[in-house]
Amino acid sequence: MAEKPTQMNPGDEAPPGTPGTGEDICPVCGGTGRTDQAVCRNCGGTGRIVEGIGGA
Q1: Which residues are within 8 A (CB) of 26 and not within 5 positions of it... i.e. 6 or more apart?
Q2: How far is CA 19 from the centre of its chain?
Q3: Closest CA to 13 of 29, 39, 32, 54
Q4: Is residue 53 within 8 Å of 21, Cβ to Cβ?
């Protein structure tokens, strides 16, 4: 059975579950999933983005 591709939103730095990443609140909509009465395009309406954590 083929694995379903993971959908990424424009604000995501990597697919969900990628080692070294984590969820954070979308900086564009502040976690609401909406901007100007429309779905936030940065997070796809989820209110969350996936970004790299840690770093040097």
Answers
A1: 11, 33, 40, 42, 43, 46, 47, 48, 49
A2: 15
A3: 54
A4: yes
Residue with tokens 């997070």: 43
- Give me 55's structure tokens: 């770093």
Question: For residues 4 and 14, what is the distance between their CA atoms, to the nearest angstrom?
Answer: 16
The residues, ordered by sequence, that sit 6+ positions from 11 with a Cβ below 8 Å of its Cβ are 26, 27, 28, 42, 43, 49
pLDDT tens per residue, range 21-33: 999 999 999 999 9
CA nearest neighbour of 25 among 46, 7, 8, 9:
46
Tokens of 37: 């009465």
Q: What pTM value is reported for the model?
A: 0.77
The domain limits of the chain are: 21-52
